[in-house]
Structures are given as C-alpha cells and as structure tokens.
What does this fold into?
Amino acid sequence: MTNEATLPLEAETSGTTSRTALLYAIIGGSLLTVVSAFLAWTWTTEFPGNLTINGNPAQLQLLTLVGAVLTALHALSALGIKGLGWLTPAGSRKALWILALGTFATTLYTVVAIAWVLGGFVHLEPGAYVALIGAVVPALAAYKLPDDTRKAAPAKKLSSWAEILVIVAVFAVGLYVITFGIDTDDKEPQLFTAYLILVAFASFAVMKSGLTQRLSDITANNRQITVIAAFVAAIAFPLTQQGGDTYTLIAVNILIFATVALGLNVVVGLAGLLDLGYVAFLGVGAYTAALVSGSASSAFHVHFPFWAAVLTGALASLVFGVIIGAPTLRLRGDYLAIVTLGFGEIFRIAMGNLDGVSGPKITNGPNGITNIPDLEMFGWNFGQPHTVLGIQLGAYANYYMLMLLAMAVVVIVFSRAGSSRIGRAWVAIREDETAATAMGINGFRVKLIAFALGATLAGLAGTVQAHVQHTVVPEMYQFAGPVPPNSAFLLAAVILGGMGTIRGPILGAALLFLIPAKLSFLQDYQLLGFGIALIILMRFRPEGLIANKRAQLEYHDDTADQAPADLATAKAGA
It folds into this structure.
C-alpha cells in the first residue's frame, strides 16, 4: 500500500526535475543559437550586412547572439549558479520567457527579411535554419516553466565604490546600446528593426526580473554620481562619431525634440492642460532668433550675440504664452484643446502671410528666413570642426554640446518647479481643479504660470534649432506632419514616455524621432503607427513607459492596497 504522505514529496521532486530539464533545454538551444551566429545565413551579398561569411558574425547575427547569451545567463541564474543570482531578484520565469521570445522574434525577422529581399527561402544557408531551431527551443521551454515570481528580497548592501562601479557600468552599456542604434546604416533598415525588437524585449525582461528596481535603489542612494555619470555618457557620444557628423545631427535633433517635450510636460504632465498648438511656441523662439541673428533675409538686419538672441527668443515665447493663455485658460478640457490647436494653426498661417504681399514683409512668407549664420561665442565658431584633446569633433558636435547644456537647464527648471509649492499646485489642479480651488489655490494664475513656463522652455529650444537648421520656414511648425517636432509628435512623446516625469518625455522623444529617421519607409504611415502604438500603450501601460509612483497607484489595481502615504509622498517629478 502506497504511503499517501509521500505523494506531495514525489510531486515536488518531479516538478523540480521537470523545471531543471526545461532550463537545460533553454541553455542548449541558446548555445545552438550562438553557434549559428558563426555560420553563413545566406549565400549572396545582395542582402544588406553580408551574412555570407563563416566564423565572422555580421551585425544582424550579433543581435541574435547577444539575445541567446542573455537567455542562457538567465537560465543559469535560475539553476542557482553562484554569482548570477543578482540577474533575477524577482523571479526568472517571466524574464527568461521574454528574452527567449525576443531572441526568437529577432531571428525570425532576420530570416524572413532575407527571404523577402532576395525572393524566397531558397536563398537561406543552413546557418539560418540552425538559428531558427536554436531560438525556438528556448522560447517553448521557457513558456512551460512554472511561475516563480516573487517579491524581490532586499538587496545585499554594497560598498560605496561597488555601487559607483555598477552605475558607471550601466551608463557605459547604455551609451554603447544607444550608439549602436543611432549608428546603424540608413541603407540597412533590417538591422535597425531587428535592433528595436531585441532592445524592446530585453528592456521588458529587465523590468520583469526585478533588476530595474535594484538599479533604481542603487541610483537613489547615489543621486549625484548618477547625474554626473549620465552627463559624462552624454558628452562622450560625439567622441564615438569619428566617421562623420551624420549621426551627431540626429542626436542634436533628438535633444531639441526632447527639450521641447519636457516643456510641454510642464503644461500637460504637471498642470493637466491639453495643449495641441505647443509647437507654435517653438516657432516663436526660432523665428525671433532668426530675425535677430544677422541673417541676410531678416527684415531687421541686426546681429545679436547668441546669449542675447536666446533671451530674446525665450522672452518672445513667454510673451506669446501669456497673451494666448490669459484669455483661453479659463476654458477646460476639449474647449481648451480646440483653442490651442487654433493658435498653432494661426501662427503657421501668419508666418506664411508676412511676405510683403499678404501682410508686412517680416518673415518672407513661405520661403522663410534662410542662411542663418552659425553661432560664434568667445571666438569658437560652431559651424567649424574642432580638435579637442587630439579628437576631431564635427560641426554638429558643437551644437550637440550646446543643446545638451540647454537640456540640463530645462531638466533643472522642471525638477525644481515640479517639487516646489507651485508644482504641487499644478498637480492639484490636474487631479481636481474644483477641489483645488476650494482649498484656496488660484487656478487661473497657477495655470497661466505653467503655460508661460512651458512656452519659455520651448522658445529656448527654438533659438538653438534655428541655428542648427540654418533655415526657418512655416511648414516646420505644423500640428502633424512627416518631420518632428510638431504638436502631435510632442504630445505623443509626453504620453508615450510618461507624463509628469523627467526621463519619460526624453525617452518618448528619442523613440519618436529616431524610428522615423532610421526607417524612412515609415514616413507615410507615421501617424497610423503612432496611433496604434498609443492604443496599445493605453491598454497595457496607461501610465507610460516610465511612470511616477502616483500614476502607478492610480492605474493599477494590484497597488491599490498600498499605504496612503505612498500616494501622499509621491512627487510629481519622480
């Protein structure tokens, strides 16, 4: 007669054995995928990237290899291998499955792209089939793993120098990953698409493994070191661009887009005011700077030094913000959105009519203001390449550094304002204007301050944009168009990244600018793609990619039982 007491023990042993077997299958499939990266995937060099060489992985194959290595490392961590437990503090199953699925998706996309470009699967070499088999095994095995999700245990306290090394390593890896994506050849859209697939899955896996929370705890303990490391990594980017200025220009435009998105975040994210014409304030700053910077096509024929042009552009945007905000901010919701949308269109049409025919000759109408001279400060011409510490920096590297400084100013203003008394009043107005007014907050004045501050920050970015583009035309400042920044893209960047945060709009702006810049075939489908992306985001992560604690508490039922103090102490700019 079988002893019933032994049945649970036998079931537990069987479950452990099955889990171990699945983990070994994941490791075996990942190793097979690694081997496949050193084999030829096609026989002809007509496919971009040259995947015909044995023993020398191309960049597309390296993406698959990286995904397989990360999957294998997480599987070893799940097996309890000493020294790898830090990879999965909140459980391994979800992270493993996401990584395995991402590796398979990257591999499958590459194989299908080869067949599509070359005209059939007959153009595949055995290495491609080995990669597919090796990638599908871990995906299936990881899916069958039992769920081991747990609350991450408190991390072992590291020494100060060890935490600093972790922060430096994280930013170094981040700089390499970002540089890899920006530097992908525009003639190889397959490489950038595969890069996006892998990075998206890997980022999601890091979040599910609990590693993101561990890193957040470390950076919270070393805020000054984190800020310094972030800016050192950002400053180091131009030093990696020795092949030319093409990709540095993309980085400059990303910084401009992100800076303007942060300004809009004050209005939308903190104060809760839906502004659909915000890009007009960017245009006010750009046009003002163009008119006073010595352009031959300027109607005023004056040449202010750059610092004066910046102040003039920012002040002009501030004035327009107050003029537009004073009569319109008594409206709410859809009515406010319609009025701001109208202002944006009025600005664009007005700039096109100030051509000397339909109105005074100030902006040259549709032709815009051209030949805006390069900046020159303290004898440093921003339009010329310079050699710094033996490293030659292109012209756009100068504007990159300047725009990085402008973004630092905007980040400081945003963080200070969000944590101040006026920032808390903005959040109160956003949550319930009637209740905030009943508590003694002057809603109109508070909203007008937000509107004016957001307009000023946009004008600041516009002054730099005018000199980077060397031309200012009305078509650059539309509600929606093929080239960002425009109002629709700015609003999408704030919502996608996470309203009320600092990192969120920066990430959203980077994604919304970089993806169209690298995937030119999406130009005609941008609004469709972003609409679909926003619908998916609202369904699965309504608080945005990077959300503050307040938004997480509001949108997710599984955090609703947390102590009320969490909500009370959540800062708007977290």
In short: Strands lie at 376-377, 380-381, 386-388, 391-393. The first strand starts at residue 376 and ends at 377.
